[in-house]
Specification:
By secondary structure, the chain is of the alpha/beta class. Helices cover 39% and strands 21% of the residues. It has helices at 42-58, 63-79, 81-92, 96-118, 159-170, 185-197, 211-220, 233-243, 266-278, 298-311, 330-345, 374-377, 393-400, 416-425, 459-465; strands spanning 9-11, 14-16, 22-26, 33-38, 136-144, 147-151, 174-178, 204-206, 226-230, 247-251, 257-260, 290-294, 349-352, 356-357, 360-361, 364-367, 384-390, 405-406, 408-412, 430-433, 449-450, 453-454, 467-475.
């Protein structure tokens, strides 16, 4: 890997220094410097896009060969598993067990992309069914859009990059990618591995820098044909506004909810909801922030749930038994703590946690929260969860749907009719029955509605977003 104090960019197959401001990369547990990265200058963003456009025009790799290369990347990821996991732990604060799992998931994302790229097809169109069209045939094909630009979030610094880069390459596109300034190391190592695997340099370009100086110009660049972004809703809306008619996929914010019905498996729900609310420090767009529990079982469920929360080990993310580590920064932990204090001032009860030490906020469970409190009205992106009793499923669904967001929701029930009713009525992109809101398998379609975004991730589905449908007719 590159020297820890020399985190460079990859443009047209060459590792180069940025020409903009220097940004330190900090170990989120120790506070020590991991390295520094120099931001790209505007001309370097232009150069990366130009390199990608030139490579897309000049380099044609057949689907079978693309698949072979992506499988090779997956092999290299797994061969570098321990180093990559340690890198994720250091730069993000995500505990070892989740970081190690993320490396395995990233390899799987490349493998799924490799296979889906081999069977990316259009369809036969029955044009003969129209009057006067005998003697004609029609079909559609999927054509790569050209240059795919991407920005990812800090909370999944390797696999989120894989979900944007691997489908783009598998479907025949070139890439220009910007990782978060807080977590650039795993992404940089991934690009090194892609070069090592034999992917032509011009097809994979990496730039570093902040959102205003590098991200915004990249997103608005006229040479970027498709843009994929994971991050906050305000930034996503700004990206969409700046791109006009050009296609985007935006995976944005949420105030994710899980519903526990009286007839559900309460023990399973307690385990899953504790994991969903607090693993990765609650810093996932699908982390359960609102936990609706049917009032008739609240007294029985709550001790089970609080016991699971209490069992979570909080502390050093390098300890393989740690469940909850530091948040991305002390400033973010202090913000979340302030939201908890605001809720307390309005009458909320703290059932667990509430304490902060530096960037570590203890897993926090609130009850009796005023509806106007930030912990209910805004995405907290922290290990804070609110218990909300309900009396009927209709009421719970209505309250889940009442926010501007609609990414994912979970529901625990043994009643098939209730489950299917909820799946139809919950206004979200993903409904998990007998799982919590944060459940995800990398090959599944994943995307939100309302202010949670547009477009779909998951290799097969992202490839359809990253390609254009073209109709071909043949007169015999």
């Amino acid at each position: 890997m590159q020297d820890q104090y020399d985190i460079r960019m990859l443009i047209d197959g060459r590792w180069i220094e940025g020409e903009g401001p220097v940004i330190p990369v900090i170990d989120k547990w120790t506070g020590e410097a991991l390295g520094r990265v120099r931001s790209a200058a505007a001309a370097q963003v232009d150069a990366a896009v130009a390199a990608a456009r030139a490579a897309f025009a000049a380099v044609r790799i057949e689907p079978y060969e693309r698949s072979r290369l992506l499988h090779r990347v997956a092999d290299l990821i797994l061969s570098d598993r321990e180093t990559l996991a340690a890198t994720i732990v250091a730069e993000s604060g995500v505990p070892w067990k989740d970081s190690d799992n993320e490396v395995a998931r990233a390899a799987e994302t490349f493998r799924v992309s490799a296979e889906e790229g081999r069977r990316l097809t259009g369809e036969i169109v029955p044009i003969q069914g129209a009057a006067g069209q005998s003697g004609r045939m029609a079909y559609t094909l999927r054509a790569p859009r050209g240059v795919v630009g991407g920005i990812s979030s800090f909370n999944s610094p390797l696999n989120m990059v894989a979900h944007k880069v691997a489908p783009a390459l598998a479907s025949g596109n070139a890439v220009v990618f910007k990782p978060p300034v807080a977590t650039p190391l795993a992404a940089t190592r991934l690009f090194e591995l892609m070069l090592e695997a034999g992917i032509p340099g011009g097809l994979i370009n990496l730039v570093h820098g902040g959102g205003a100086d590098v991200g915004a110009p990249l997103a608005a660049h006229p040479g970027v044909d498709f843009f994929t972004f994971t991050g906050s809703t305000p930034v996503g809306k700004a990206i969409q506004a700046g791109r006009g008619m050009r296609a985007t996929a935006l995976e944005l914010g949420s105030i994710a909810a899980t519903i526990v019905c009286a007839d559900g498996d309460l023990e399973r729900a307690a385990v899953r909801c504790a994991q969903s609310g607090f693993r990765r420090q609650g810093q996932a767009c699908t982390s359960t922030q609102r936990l609706f529990v049917e009032r008739s079982v609240l007294e029985r469920f709550l001790p089970m749930f609080l016991a699971q929360v209490a069992a979570l080990k909080v502390g050093d993310p390098r300890d393989h038994s740690t469940d909850v580590g530091p948040m991305i920064s002390e400033a973010e932990a202090a913000r979340a703590e302030a939201w908890v204090r605001e809720a307390e001032a309005k009458g909320a009860k703290v059932l667990a946690g509430g304490e902060r030490r530096g960037a570590v906020l203890a897993p926090t469970v609130l009850a009796e929260v005023d509806p106007g409190s930030k912990v209910l009205c805004e995405e907290i992106f922290a290990p804070v969860l609110t218990i909300l009793p309900f009396d009927t499923l209709d009421e719970a669904i209505e309250r889940v749907n009442a926010t501007p967001f609609g990414l994912a929701a979970g529901l625990f029930t043994r009643d098939l009719s209730c489950a299917l009713k909820a799946a139809e009525r919950l206004h979200v992109g993903v409904v998990h029955l007998n799982e919590a809101s944060s459940s995800r398998v990398d090959l599944m379609p994943f995307g939100g509605v309302k202010d949670s975004g547009v477009g779909v991730e998951g290799p097969r589905y992202a490839m359809r977003e990253m390609t254009e449908e073209r109709l071909v007719t043949i007169t015999l």
